[in-house]
Specification:
16 strands; alpha+beta; BirA Bifunctional Protein, domain 2; 5-stranded mixed barrel; 2 domains; 8-stranded mixed beta sheet
């Protein structure tokens, strides 16, 4: 039975005639005279019909033993059939059983914990396969966009001597006889590289030890970051908008079938490609939330999930929120020129977040970087950090400091929004959360 095998999707494009396909049993039912087998491969599923009259008693007895996820090779004739799950049916004339599976340990009665324990098998579901294909498109689109814009890909260490964001949310690791940390961001090293390479980007894992067992948090996630020399605050916002538009455009072009499998309403995705994103200040957000939802939020308090969600209800695209209070943002963010002379508690920074529509929260975090070494030191001291850990970083301000900025995008958060997922854990093959370390 040596034949040229084709993918199920290719067989359906062929439309009619003889085909040789192979894969795994997705569904299996029937009687003593006829079996209906839905075959799955990485491209799609197709219904296959096996009639007892076409097989010997010995082969039929083996067919009768098939279970979900058994692997087989099928040879037969494909034709259109509107009654079949994907519109085609294969009449099987010959079969090679590669492996008869054991009872598949996934069923509709499993709770989330038990399903998580079987994650390596749940990846075979149509839902997870669709998400992983969309994820692949998104990663490809990120690289495509940055390279088209003249960025150089640059990697930084994963094991660091100092925290990049907040000392309270880092994973400590033993580094021989020293204490080290898993990277929360590439940013501090990236800022030193722009003096050599100009515009740079990376897509790499980041780690956050936040004790948040929510539908939006992962302890290990993929971080798409960029850093731009000679940037302005407006230029950074343009990059964020254009990157998101490019990603969504590619998914709409390449993953129509996957979005249909996920039953994703693409209204906000289409709007994201067509419209400019609203750009509003933190102060304006507080006024909007008061006016529309009667939320009374003291100026200076960071926006919580509930407030970001309510804000997203007012728009059908991502929203860029700018000029957050300095007190709630990181030490490296540049002060807004308009608040330089104001008291410390009234200062804002040239930082922005991109808030996803439909209640998907923060997708990007961005800022112009503080150029003044003394201001950076003051900010670090205020946060209780040891300045000795940042000496390499200070050198970027000692030798030719320039205006620059950048942002980080949480790739899984973007995947969650684009796919319409209820939990970020499904945006990655093997999620790491506060209570999930395996498989």
């Amino acid at each position: 039975m040596e034949k040229d095998f084709i993918l199920i999707k290719e067989a359906m494009k062929q439309g009619k005639g003889d085909v040789a396909i192979r894969g795994w049993v997705y569904r299996f039912r029937g009687s003593n005279k006829v079996k209906f087998l839905v075959l799955r491969d990485p491209s799609d599923i197709v219904q296959c019909v096996l009639k007892k009259e076409d097989f010997s008693d010995e082969v039929w007895a083996e067919i009768d033993k098939l279970k979900i996820e058994s692997s087989v090779k099928l040879f037969g004739e494909i034709k259109a059939d509107t009654r079949a799950p994907t519109g085609f049916e294969v009449t099987v004339k010959d079969i090679e059983i590669v492996h008869i599976a054991e009872d598949f340990p996934i069923n509709k009665d499993l709770n989330e914990d038990l399903l998580g324990d079987r994650r390596h098998l749940w990846l075979r579901s149509r839902k997870m396969t669709a998400i992983m294909k969309i994820r692949s498109t998104i990663f490809g689109a990120i690289h495509e966009y940055y390279r088209k814009e003249g960025f150089t890909e640059f990697q930084s260490p994963t094991i660091l001597s100092a925290a990049g964001e907040s000392g309270s949310s880092v994973f400590e690791v033993k580094y021989f006889d020293k204490k080290a940390y898993l990277a929360q961001t590439w940013q501090l090293h990236a800022e030193t590289a722009i003096f050599a390479l100009g515009k740079i980007y990376t897509v790499a894992p980041s780690f956050r030890a936040e004790k948040s067992n929510t539908s939006r948090h992962l302890t290990e996630y993929w971080h798409a970051e960029m850093e731009v020399p000679w940037s302005t605050f407006d230029i950074l916002q343009d990059y964020a908008q254009n990157l998101m538009k490019h990603i969504v455009k590619r998914v709409l072009e390449n993953n129509k079938e996957e979005l249909e499998i996920l039953e994703r309403d693409t209204k906000t995705l289409n709007a994201t490609v067509k419209k400019d994103f609203p750009r509003i200040t933190y102060t304006e957000v507080l006024k909007l939330l008061k006016e529309k939802f009667d939320f009374e939020i003291p100026w200076g308090k960071d926006l919580r999930t509930i407030e970001e969600d309510k804000l997203s209800e007012l728009f059908d695209t991502p929203v860029i929120v700018t000029n957050y209070p300095k007190a709630v943002k990181a030490f490296y963010m540049k002060e807004s020129p308009e608040t330089i002379d104001k008291p410390e508690e009234e200062k804002t920074v040239q930082g922005f977040d991109v808030i996803g529509p439909e209640g998907y929260g923060e997708l990007f975090g961005a800022s112009q970087r503080e150029e003044n070494i003394e201001v950076i030191k003051e900010n670090l001291i205020r946060e209780g950090e040891n300045l000795e850990n940042y000496e390499f970083y200070f050198d970027s301000r000692r030798y030719g400091s320039i205006p620059h900025g950048g942002f980080g995008m949480g790739v899984e958060r973007v995947i969650s929004w684009i796919c319409g997922l209820s939990d970020i854990k499904d945006a990655i093959a093997f999620p790491r959360k506060m209570r999930r370390l395996s498989p």
